[in-house]
Design brief:
- The protein is an all-alpha fold and 503 residues long.
- It has a single domain, classed as Up-down Bundle (Growth Hormone, Chain: A).
- It is built from 25 helices and two strands.
- It starts with a helix and ends in a 16-residue tail after the last helix.
- The relative contact order is 0.15.
Amino acid sequence: MSEPGLVANRKQLLTAGFLTLIAAGVGFAVRGGLLDVWSNKYGFTMTELGQITGGGLLGFGIIILLAGLLIDWIGYKPLMLVAFLCHVISAAMLFAATPVFNASGKDACYMLLFWSMFIFAIGNGICEAVINPLTAALYPKEKTHYLNILHAGWPAGLVIGGLIVFAKGMVPWEVLMAAFLVPVVLYGLIVLKESFPKTDAQEGAISYGGMFAKLIGPFFLILLLAHACVGYVELGTDSWINKITGVILNSAKLGTALFIYTSLLMTVLRFVAGPIVHKISSLGLLFASAIIGATGLYLISIGNSVPFMFFAATVYALGKTFLWPTMLGVVGERFPQSATVAMAIMGCIGMVSAGSLGGPGIGYKQDYFASKYIQENAPETYSRVKAPNENSFLTFPAITGIDGAKAGMIADNGAAVMSDVEIAGEAISGEEFSSLRSQSEWFEANKQFVETDKGPVGEATLHGSRMAIRYTAIVPAAMAVLYLLLLMFPKPKHAADGHDAAH
């Protein structure tokens, strides 16, 4: 460290980085726990919900790359302050969702939630771009240990967020979603107070061209493809796993409990990863994790009891725990002088994949298999509950999924909607309540079919959830093949005497 004074505050800076990941984890977990609320309240299909969650991850990925390239120009601290502002703005937008829905309808509400998640993700992306190389610079002799500790903040945030979701229904969802502001304020105070080190490029130790030149080659290209799969299977799946396991167990609270349990397991394991890494190579650990992750996802898809689902979730958690941080470790091991830009590129690829493929893709698969099932088994029910619009994903065929609001009204016999109508009172005739009025009118016209439709809708939703997770298991299986290819490359000389980057 070129400035001795910075060594004294490295714990504070590590704490700030840890808090940014807690904030990201809380926001991510609460959002995942609120998908059913948004579906029922605003009428979103599974594909639309996937696009909202995907928008958050997509923004995350793009900004990681841009911020990673800017670090050497403007420094760590200014970027962290921009991230702080993004987090605050995102929270402010959330509180406008219901008024916007009442005034302008579903499409406007969808756009508000999408952009709120996108801005939230910009803040997360800036933080991710900063804290990885910053931690490596603060602890140059213990990178693996402290990067593991740093990234334990993510599952710790998931645990906190999962616990917050238990208050769903007792307080407005906007309050639950805005809970991520607590760690945001805490890291903001640290960033404002503390000084930050300079990067290697700022100190003239390496040029931009030199950093990129070292990355050119098949190893890094395969690594990028593998990390795209990591983003899909870890973050894309985690966007949905809370809801899907809740559907399988027929209990949203049990789904949330499973999510908390797996996140807590990840937190503990990342704190004790060092000894595990020293027993096995980083790529060997990734290969084993991919196999275990694929097995866990398949087991979840066939689960039918609480004990079995906890077992399946344990296997899945063991598989995904080390994927993201170990991939960063491989970068540090193979490309130590290019770590700043390499980590930014890796983060971008992983998040863009999760946002543009994982979240929307898993949502599409649920809609596809659920709508196909209900069309084949209960076509009359499908004609009543289908969404008013089609959804598509990449080059796959356009489909018309089940309308989330209609499914919600069928599930609770219209209780929530009619309660909202009663609260609105005479104002229900106003333009600001047009969407709510439309939902209540649909229920009044179709309430005689509720008992007939309840079974088929529930069965179709369950089938769609199971099949979506089962097909997702193909992704970590493909990752295992890529890791085998990477294991065939010779180990670089500079990494031959230790496991520092195998994180």
